[in-house]
DNA sequence: ACCCAGGGTCGTC
DNA sequence: GACGACCCTGGG
């Protein structure tokens, strides 16, 4: 691990606010100069824009260009995806325009699983706090520019953490779920390496659903936001339910809208790009 | 002071 | 399948 810099010129579909505030990640924090600093895997990275250049700088393990290309999903052609989505209808056209710089990060599978278990019936500031305290207590230190950062702890590092320990981080009733899932993964009841090799989205999903604290919504978030990277899932939370009802269903009692109905419409309208569609709609609705 | 909601899941009926 | 409970924090 050493300090490295990487400059990326004229990259399309890349807006810091869109990427880091669209709800997919919890460890990136905005800096006074408009850039963001975050920890992922064994890296601390700062990202900022200068004109038509994106500058990545930080303590990085391995070659920074390779790391950035993978994490920021730079090989995917988002222009093409946006073009396809825009053609679907005027709603999509607008939401894609609004979040034109969104990219779906390739986040560590294990970290994504735990983070989204924590996210259940929770709000973003609190989720971020719990994850930060977890990292501080059980992760590894990385020092950079007079500050200390902490990596997200690996399963082995949580081996001896008790339910009470999770509770004392402020995790609330999710404590037992974090504990159980950690041990299911340590005991290879769910083997993350095998899961990563699986090609069938539904099989992956079924496996994830066996984990404690992982229901349909959390499973879909893991599939979409982790290195599993399935774009053909549609996580339905309160915001997506709201926007889908407003745009396509128009039921006066939003809570009465069936999940199945939303799923059906999403699949029909957005096809195998429904995950991306969800993300543009989510960002659009939450910010606007 | 009190109520409500927040990227839901789980057990119970 | 529907319903309530669940920890905790911030905002009205």
List its salient traits.
TATA-Binding Protein; globular; DNA-binding; two-stranded antiparallel sheet; single chain; 288 residues; Endonuclease Iii, domain 2; 7 strands; 14% strand
Give me a quick take on this structure.
The chain is of the alpha+beta class.
Radius of gyration based on Cα positions? 19 Å
The biggest sheet, with number of strands, parallel, antiparallel or mixed sense and barrel status, is: 5 strands, antiparallel
Tally of DSSP helical segments = 14
Low-confidence stretches: none
Total number of β-strand segments?
Answer: 7
CATH superfamily of the largest domain: Hypothetical protein, domain 2
- Provide the helix percentage: 40-55%
Q: Can you put this structure into words, describing what you see?
A:
This protein has helices at residues 16-20, 64-71, 78-86, 90-98, 109-118, 124-138, 163-171, 175-186, 192-197, 201-209, 216-225, 238-249, 259-270, 274-287, and strands at 2-9, 28-30, 36-40, 43-50, 53-60, 141-144, 147-150. The chain is α+β, with helices and mostly antiparallel strands and 288 residues long. The chain has three domains: 2-75, TATA-Binding Protein (2-Layer Sandwich); 78-93 and 231-288, Orthogonal Bundle (Endonuclease Iii, domain 2); 109-225, Hypothetical protein, domain 2 (Endonuclease III, domain 1), CATH 1.10.340.30. Strand 4 and strand 5 form a beta hairpin. Helix 6 crosses helix 7. The chain is globular and about 50 Å long. The model has no long low-confidence stretch (mean pLDDT 96). It binds a DNA duplex (13 and 12 nucleotides) through residues 23, 116-117, 119-127, 129, 167, 170-175, 177, 212-218, 221, 235-240, 282, 286.
